[in-house]
């Protein structure tokens, strides 16, 4: 994989991403999720906006997982990865973090992403994911999104909206780390700087392993 900062034209293209609001990056995440193919654009925007607000309102979550560092994130297309076995672990990829920090400087976004905040946001993102996957926040997010898959008398079953938890986690990281913009903006800019190997499309820089 090549991992070089883009040239002047590439930096200009990355800089133009800042003209979009944070919710738009959430919409793009949902649009690129296969299960949402053909869904109404306004519905996706509603879900993205709801997930963004939900994540921002969640209280800070103390990271309980073990934190380790690796150096092959660019080759894997990852900035961080959570594994539940053999023990809960957040793996941070220092090469991707370093590239993200350098890109922030080149784009003049340091007022949005203070030094060291990319790492802090990655840890906060992974920490809240545990709550969104297994805690009470999982059910609350489903209710907030309002994706009803079954009604039977007084009973209503809300379905899972793929990608919404990712949007909420990024929004939560933005809020608790005091970032000026969502990490999703920086993720989009990184996608212009990192070229995936043949056969592997660009995806989320946050991975999951059971």
Layout of helices and strands, plus pairs?
Elements: E1 2-3, H1 8-16, H2 22-31, H3 41-57, E2 66-70, H4 73-76, E3 80-83, E4 89-93, H5 94-107, H6 117-134, H7 136-145, E5 148-152, E6 155-158, H8 164-176, H9 183-193, E7 194-195, E8 206-209
Parallel strand pairs: 2-4, 3-8
Antiparallel strand pairs: 1-7, 3-4, 5-6
Question: What attributes characterize this protein structure?
Answer:
4-stranded mixed β-sheet; single chain; 15% strand; 210 residues; globular; 8 strands
Task: Provide a descriptive summary of the structure in words.
With 210 residues, the chain is α/β, with parallel strands linked by helices. The protein has one domain (2-209). Helix content is 50%, strand content 15%. It has nine helices and eight strands. A four-stranded mixed sheet has the order 2-4-3-8. The protein is globular and about 60 Å long.
Poorly predicted parts: 196-203
* Form type: globular
What structural category do the secondary elements indicate?
alpha/beta
Q: Could you tell me the number of beta strands?
A: 8
Please work out how many helical segments DSSP would assign.
9
Q: Biggest sheet: strands side by side, in what order?
A: 2-4-3-8
Cα(first) to Cα(last) distance is: 26 Å
**How would a crystallographer describe the biggest sheet?**
4 strands, mixed
How much β-strand is present in the residues? 5-15%
Question: What proportion of the residues is helical, as a percent range?
Answer: 40-55%
The total tally of domains equals: 1
Q: How much is the average pLDDT?
A: 87
Radius of gyration: 17 Å
Q: Name the helix and strand elements from N-terminus to C-terminus, one letter apiece.
A: EHHHEHEEHHHEEHHEE
């Amino acid at each position: 994989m090549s991992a070089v900062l883009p040239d002047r034209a590439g930096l200009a293209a990355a800089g133009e991403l800042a003209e979009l609001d944070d919710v738009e990056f959430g919409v793009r995440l949902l649009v690129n999720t296969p299960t949402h193919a053909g869904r109404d654009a306004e519905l996706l925007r509603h879900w993205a906006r709801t997930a963004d607000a939900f994540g921002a309102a969640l209280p800070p979550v103390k990271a309980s997982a073990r934190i380790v560092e690796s150096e092959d994130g660019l080759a894997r297309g990852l900035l961080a990865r959570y594994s539940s076995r053999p023990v809960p672990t957040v793996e941070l990829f220092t090469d991707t973090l370093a590239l993200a920090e350098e890109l922030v400087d080149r784009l003049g976004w340091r007022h949005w992403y203070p030094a060291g905040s990319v790492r802090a946001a990655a840890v906060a993102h992974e920490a809240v994911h545990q709550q969104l996957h297994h805690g009470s926040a999982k059910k609350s997010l489903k209710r907030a999104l309002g994706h009803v898959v079954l009604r039977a008398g007084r009973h209503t079953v809300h379905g899972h909206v793929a990608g919404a938890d990712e949007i909420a986690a990024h929004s939560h990281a933005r809020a608790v780390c005091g970032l000026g913009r969502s990490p999703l903006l920086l993720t989009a800019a990184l996608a212009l700087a990192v070229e995936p190997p043949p056969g592997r499309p660009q995806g989320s820089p946050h991975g999951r392993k059971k």
